[in-house]
Amino acid sequence: MNSSEVFNIAWAAILKNKVRSLLTMLGIIIGVAAVIVMVAISAGTEATINEEINSLGANLVFVQSTFTRGGASGLPEGGLVYDDAAAIAEGVDGVSGVVVEQSASQTIKANGVVLDAVTLLGSTADFPSVRDMSIEDGRYFNDLEVDRNQKVAVLGSSLAEELFGEADPIGQDITVGTTRLVVIGVLEEKGLVGDVDYDSRLYMPISVVLDKFTQSQFSRIMGDRVRLIYVEVEDQENLDNIILQIQLLLAKRHDLPLEEADFTVTTQQDIIGTQEATTAAFRSLLGWVAGVSLIVGGIGIMNIMLVSVTERTREIGIRQSIGATPSDIRWQFLTEALLLSLVGGLLGVIFGVGGAWIFGSASGMRTVVVTESIVLAFSSAALVGAFFGFYPANKAAELDPIEALRHE
Amino acid sequence: MAARAIIETKDLTQIYGMGDARVAALDGVSISVHEGEFVAIMGPSGSGKSTLMNILGCLSRPTSGGYFLDDEDVSGLDKVELAAIRNKKIGYIFQSYNLLSRTTALDNVILPLQYDRVTERSTEERKKVAMKVLEMVGLSDRVEHQPQELSGGQQQRVAIARALVNNPVLIMADEPTGNLDSKSGAEIMQLLHDLHDEGATIVMVTHSNEIASHTERTIHLLDGKIDKIVGNGKKAKK
Predict the structure, then answer these.
(1) Hey, where are the domains in chain A?
(2) What pLDDT digit, counting tens, does each position of A128-140 carry?
(3) CB contact under 8 A, A324 and B83
C-alpha cells in the first residue's frame, strides 16, 4: 500500500463524517488561529510603539527628575531645574541639542476664530531637531527669544488651518488667554504619534509658558523645576560617555553624590528594551495559552480516533485478513489523525490571517501577521496530530484479526 | 502418485485460558489436504472447527504443533509474516462476505493487491487484474457498484473475486452459503465447483451435510479432535 493510497483512505474516512471531522478539528483550528491573531496583535502593538519611540527623535537621552519630599512643609525638594538644561548644553561634549518642555492649556483667539483648551507647548529652541519636527513655513524661535521671553508662537499644521484657513499666518497676531503673540512659523504635518496630536498644538518659548500660563498653585510650588530634559547626542557611539558626563555634571550642580542623585538618565534603547521585554513576556503567555488549546484539540483528535477505531474494527479485521500488516493499519490511522490536524491547522491559518485582518480593520488597532507564527502554529498542530494519533493507531494495529472480524 | 500436499498439519493443539480454566479447543489434529482437493470441515459448535479454520487460514497461530502450508512451515511466523502469507497464499470467503462498505466492487477486489509487497503492480495493472477476476465471477457489469447496491449472491461473488485476485494456493470458505437463499447458494456452490475444476484447493466449513456432499472429503471434528474423515464418493481431480 503506497502513501497516496493510504492518504486516499484517510481522506475518504474524514469526508465520510464531515460534521464530526470538522468538530474534531475545531480545537486545532481555534488554537492555530489564536496563535496567529494574538501574535499579529502583539507584533502590531510593538511596531506602533517602536515607531512612536523613534518618532520622538533619534539619538535621544532622557534626563528625568526624581523628586524627593522633604522638610516640615512636605514640599518637593531637589530634582531638575530649568537651568540644568542650559548647563548640559554648555558643559557636555557631543550634545547636539537640549530641550525642556512645559505644557499648558488656554483659549486662543485669532483671525476672528476662538478655540478653547488648546494645548500650549513651551520648549527651547532645539525642539524641532530633537523631536524630529520640520518647519513648513517661517521659522522656529531661537535661544535669544527664549532667553528674552519673547511673545512669539509657532503653529501646528492643523491649528494653522483652523485659525487662518488658506491665509498666510506668518506675522499675524494671536491672543492666548490675555497675552498677545506674533506667529513666526508653521510646522509640517506630523500626524498622530500614539495618542498625541502634535499638529493641533501651539508652540512658544518655554519662558513664556512658565511666565504667563502656568500660574496654578502647583506650578508656583514647583518653581522652575522641570520633570524631563531631552538631550540629543551627535553620535550613538559616545552615548555611555555622554550619559556619564551628564550624571557627573548634574550631581555636581545639585551638590549630591552620584548614588543619591535626584534624577535618572535613560536612553531610547532602554525604553525599547523594556518594551521588548514586556512584549516577549506577553508573547510567551500567548504561547502557553495557545499551546494548551492545541493540546485540548489533540485530545479531541485522540478521542475521535479511538471512536473511529472501535467503529471500524470490522474493517480493520477485513484488511488484516487479506494481508494488511500491523504497520499498514497503524499508518492508515496515524495518517487520518495527521490529516485531521493538518486540515485543522490549515483552516486555523486561514481563519487566523483573516481574523487578524478583520480585527485590525474593525478595531483600528494595527496587526502584523508574523510568518514565524504561522509556521510555528501549523507545525505544532502537525506534531499534536502525530502525538495524539499514535495511541489510537497503535491500538488499531494491535487488534487480533479474529476478534476484529467477529466484531459487529 | 499422490498430489503435493498444500496443507499438512501435525498434532495441532490450541489451548485457551490458564491453569484450571485451560480448555483445549484443538487437541492434536493432524490432517493433510492435497493440491486441487475440495475438502469440507464439519462439526457441532465447540468442536474446534473455527479454531482449525483460523489456524489453517493463518489468522492465528497454534499453541503447539506443526503446520506446513505450500511446503512452508508457518506455525512459528510472526504477525507481519503471517499477514504476507494471508495476502499471497490464502483467499478467504466469509459467511457475511466481509466487503468494505461504501467501497466499489472493483476497489474491494483491488484491496489485496494494494497490500501485496511482493509483486509490484501499477494502478492500471491492478485494475486490469481485478477486472479479470470480476469477469470470471460474472460481475463485469457491476464493478462500480457498492456492496449495499448488490444482492447477497452478488456480494459473495465480489468476495470470491477478492479471494482469487492474488492467485492463492488455498481458498478458505467459511459457511459461504450460510447467508444466502437456496438459489443464490446453489450458484455460489457452482462457482466453487468451477474453481475446483480449474484446479483450486478449497477448504470449506459448513453445517450442512448437503453442502458438504459436494466435496471430495469431509473432516468431522468433535471436541477438538478428528472424529472421522468421510469420502464423498467423488473422484479427486488430477
Answers:
(1) 3-51+273-406, 67-261
(2) 888 778 888 899 9
(3) yes
